[in-house]
Structures are given as C-alpha cells and as structure tokens.
Specification:
Blueprint lengths: L14 H24 L8 E2 L13 H12 L7 E2 L10 H6 L14 E4 L6 E4 L11 E4 L3 E4 L3 H7 L6 E5 L5 E5 L3 E3 L6 E4 L6 E4 L11 E4 L3 E4 L3 H7 L6 E5 L5 E5 L3 E3 L10 E4 L5 E4 L8 E5 L4 E4 L15 E5 L5 E5 L3 E3 L21 E3 L23 E8 L13 H4 L3 E8 L14 H14 L14 E5 L11 E5 L11 E4 L20 E4 L6 E4 L2
Parallel strand pairs: 1-2, 24-25, 25-26
Antiparallel strand pairs: 3-6, 3-9, 4-5, 6-7, 7-8, 10-13, 10-16, 11-12, 13-14, 14-15, 17-20, 17-23, 18-19, 20-21, 21-22, 26-31, 27-28, 29-30
Helix pairs in contact: 1-2
C-alpha cells in the first residue's frame, strides 16, 4: 500500500507536481522496481491522504484533490482507499464516489508451453533481459514446463535455435527470458511404462523399431519410460511379442524398446507426507486451481510449512516435479502450489489451530484515528466524532523496546469512558531500530510488551508469552456512569499464526461488538498476537 501526499503545508511544490512525484515515482515507480526484483506482480491498492499534515488540519480542497484522483486514474486501480487522519470534508465525497475503478483482468492462458532440456546442468537460468548481460533472476529445473509470453508464430520460430531468447513465465510466476536452444515444445505427458528385465538387468533402446541397428542407449530394470504413442496404441502393444514402442527415457533420449519387456507403470503407495515446506527464495504463489492461467490468491514465503490437503501417500511423486499439489497455508488459504518448489517437511508440524471464541456480533466495526501516535501524545480528537451516533475503535502506537523492567504504560479510560474501544500497537522502535527487534531479542520484546500491559490502566490484553497468564479487565461499553469491571482469565493456546503464541478472552458484558473476523480486533474481546508478528492491547467500545 502507498500513502497519498504528506507534502508540508509550507511546500511550494505545485499540486500537479506533488501528485506526479508521489503517484508516478514513489508509488508505481517503486512498485515496478520491486516487481522486477521479485519476478512476480502482487496487487497494488493505493491509499490517498487528502491532507498536508499528519493531524488532518491542513486539508485539500476539491480542486487539489481532483488533481490527485486524475493522476491515479491513469493507472486504473481496481481498488483504492482514502486515509482519514482527522475527517474527510464532505465536498470530497462526490469526487471519491465518481472515481472510475479499473477492471479486474484475468490472466491470459498461454498458447504455447515449452519444456526445459538441460540434463547436464540440471537447470536453466532465467534472466531479466534476452542476453547474458545481466545476472539470472531465477533458475528452473530440467524438465520444468514454462509458459511462453510471445506469439505462437515467434515461439515456434525460436524454440531450439541457437542465439534466440524466449520471454517466458515460470511455474513460480517469475517472468523473464531463457535461452531458446535449451527448451523444446511441451507435449502432454504420455503413458508411463516400467521396464521388466530382471535377468539381464537392462533393456536396449534402439533408433528404429527393430534390432536392425545398434542401441543408442540402455535403461535399467525398473526404469520408468514415457510412451510417445497414442494411448490406444500403447495399450494394444504393451507385453506383446514382436511389438515395439516409441518412448523417451529419463535422460530425455528418444527411441524404441521391445514392448514385451515393459508393463504399465503403477505408482507405488509411498510414505505419508502430511506437510511440505516451500523451497524458493522468492516464495511461491498459491492458486485456486492447478495451472498458471488463474491469478494467484495468496503468496507464501520461503520456508513456509504447508499442510497437504490431498492423499499424503501420493505427495512424494509430486515433490520436485512440475505437478500441482493441493495445500493449506498457515493463513488458512487453500489452493494449489507447484511441486517443483516444495520439499518434504522432515519434522511433523505439531501446531494446533485455535478454536474461535463464540462471540456475539453487533453494530460497529468502525476504526477512528488510525496510527494516532501514542495514547498520551496525540491531540484529543474525540470531538471530531461527537454527535455521529457511532462508536468504534481508536488505534495508537507505542514503542516499548526490549527492557522488561521499563516503566511505560498508559491510562486509556478517557477514551473507553467516551464509548471508544482502544487498540494499542506495541512496536520495538522506529527507524533505524526497526518495528521488530533482531530475532535474539524477541523474548525480551515479548516481556517488554507484557510490562507495558501491567503498567497500563484498564486495558484488555491477551498476554505476553506462551507460558504466562494475564488477567483481563473490561468496562461496559459507552456507559460513563459505570466504573465496575468484570474479570476473566486468559489462557494461552497454540496459534495458527507463524512466529508466536496468541490468546483471547471475552468479557462477560458487552454492548457494542464488531463482526467476528479473525484478523480484526473485536470490541468486547481480548486480542493479541505474540511477537514477532505484532502486539495489540484492546479496550471495548
């Protein structure tokens, strides 16, 4: 996501140049740079801020905001947001409603596919330009199937030709160029055959369907061959004396073998593999269906553990091959990944999912004052929402460092007693220290978060570590005359989130509840996700 403008009120840069710099250079220009670095194109959803200061006091007028929207329209975003630091002027709303969003374009199915032929090295480099002038951006294994991103006529003219380069897309969605003399046109895999020659221990492969010429190679007993004839002909010949089958060996040598020394290959019932690990430095796309003709629905990083959602005994034959495997990601996204980029998970994944608490749903999911700096450092902006007949959340940010004995904490009762839920995001630090500390300091950061909770007044939290217990306190929402609290214990449970433990609890009373969305803090409940993801401390609305 990308913010809109925060040129200061004193800036002399004209609005059209501000929009050009922020949208063309800082947003889409930077995006294209990283697309080239990553090798794939994630969606971009811009966020415009119609202000010139972080407090929302110096606001854009309709004419100036129109300049920004016109600049953004040239890129045809399918979705964009407006960042509300304070409040959006009513005269901007018609411009936002009139903005014409771009159309969501489905991926175009490639007309030509090629197969990598590089048995000696076992891989082929993918480069950002059609030459060796720049280093590779990826590598594809021998036998990998690539989508050609050129016309069918051009592709057919280049395949197998020295000095020619093909623009392609890999199974991992990396776009680039490969040497055309290391690829061939891809044909759908034929029937697989198994060599049965236990006495000699091998079978000759000949250039013609007879013994008239010497063998071009030999294959071992038990080798699996690919038939290059129609299925009907293969089934009629297998095991028959005097018949010859046109085949391809595992070393990519084509020839003929005696059909009476082969049988139809049956995949063995291998070991059960319930989990696999992503083996790709640039991560791996998850797709709704097998194949690359549908846009990705999710992206998982290198080393991510994926749950297998098909017969685990058949997974071994797909790992490391250009075959599609149905999985579930830690984010609970289900889909398909290419087997070339996963490996068997050696250790069993013993994580257990957290059962969602049974929470009621209510009237509000509003969030006001996103990233409102610290709870005691931000101006009191409650008046901005007075008389709106709405309650909801206010989000603050606080740095806590890694000292478990610090004295930092806040009293948020003035917000909770005014009908707002409060979310406090706990950071390790800001630039150059980093939102999260180095990995060696994760435990200290978690203890510092817990200390902040203990030092704060009337907050609801779900704790700091997987072994501690935290008392949760809640105040009835929007009731200024009540000061009593109800208390319940939060018990930590394993989380489906990577990198930390999470805990939840629900107060016994609530009057304003948001929809129960797993990744959204719910007014009336406790919600925190342990380091190194993020930490939240919540008060009810």
């Amino acid at each position: 996501m990308s913010y809109g403008t925060y040129f200061g009120p004193e800036s002399t840069v004209p609005p059209d140049q501000q929009a050009q710099r922020v949208i063309d250079e800082w947003t889409y220009g930077h995006y294209e740079y990283w697309v080239r670095r990553w090798g794939y194109r994630p969606p971009l959803y811009p966020v415009l801020g119609p202000y010139h200061d972080e407090y929302g006091l110096a606001r854009m007028d309709p004419d100036e905001f129109h300049v920004w929207l016109d600049r953004l329209a040239a890129y045809g975003p399918t979705f964009f947001s407006v960042f509300t630091t304070g409040a959006i002027n009513d005269d901007l709303l018609p411009l936002i409603r009139a903005f014409s969003l771009g159309e969501v374009r489905g991926a175009v199915s490639p007309r030509v596919q090629v197969e990598v032929v590089s048995p000696a090295l076992g891989y082929l480099n993918v480069r950002p330009v059609p030459s060796t002038a720049q280093p590779p951006i990826a590598q594809v294994d021998h036998g990998a199937v690539l989508d050609v991103l050129e016309s069918e006529e051009d592709a057919l003219a280049k395949v197998g030709q020295d000095g020619q380069w093909l623009r392609i897309r890999t199974p991992a969605d990396v776009e680039g160029y490969v040497a055309a003399w290391y690829v061939r046109l891809h044909e759908e895999a034929g029937i697989q055959l198994e060599v049965v020659s236990p006495v000699l221990g091998f079978l000759n492969v000949r250039p013609v369907p007879s013994t008239a010429q010497p063998p071009v190679t030999r294959v071992d007993d038990g080798a699996v061959l690919e038939a290059l004839e129609p299925e009907e002909d293969v089934l009629a010949k297998v095991g028959q004396d005097g018949q010859w089958l046109h085949i391809r060996t595992p070393d990519d040598i084509e020839g003929y073998v005696a059909a009476w020394y082969v049988v139809l290959y049956e995949e063995p019932g291998g070991e059960s593999i319930p989990h696999v690990t992503v083996h790709s430095t640039i991560g791996l796309n998850v797709r709704r269906t097998p194949g690359t003709d549908i846009a990705p629905i999710w992206h998982v990083g290198d080393g991510t553990v994926l749950e297998v959602r098909e017969d685990p005994k058949k997974v071994a034959d797909k790992i490391g091959k250009d075959r599609w495997l149905k999985i579930r990601a830690p984010s609970l996204h289900e889909g398909y990944v290419n087997g070339l980029y996963v490996r068997a998970q050696q250790l069993a994944d013993k994580r257990q999912p957290v059962d969602d608490a049974s929470l009621p749903q209510g009237e509000c999911a509003w969030i006001f004052g996103i990233h409102g700096a610290t709870a005691d450092g931000t101006g009191d902006f409650r008046h901005l929402f007075g008389g709106q007949d709405r309650t909801g959340w206010v989000l603050f940010t606080q740095t806590v460092g890694t000292d478990p004995h610090h004295g930092s904490g806040h009293d948020v009762t003035r917000w909770s007693n005014s009908g707002y839920g409060v979310i406090i995001r706990l950071n390790h630090d800001y630039e150059p220290g980093g939102t999260l500390p180095v990995r060696a300091k994760y435990a200290d950061f978690a203890r510092a978060c817990a200390r902040y909770v203990q030092n704060s007044t009337e907050v609801v939290t779900s704790g700091s570590s997987a072994t501690s217990r935290t008392t949760c306190a809640s105040i009835p929402a929007g009731r200024k005359t009540r000061s009593s609290t109800s208390r319940r214990r939060c018990t930590p449970r394993p989380s489906t989130w990577r990198g930390g433990a999470s805990r939840r609890c629900s107060p016994r009373r609530s009057s304003c509840l948001a929809p129960s969305i797993p990744t959204t803090p719910i007014p009336g409940s406790c919600w925190a996700i342990g380091a190194p993801v993020h930490w939240s401390i919540s008060r009810r609305c």
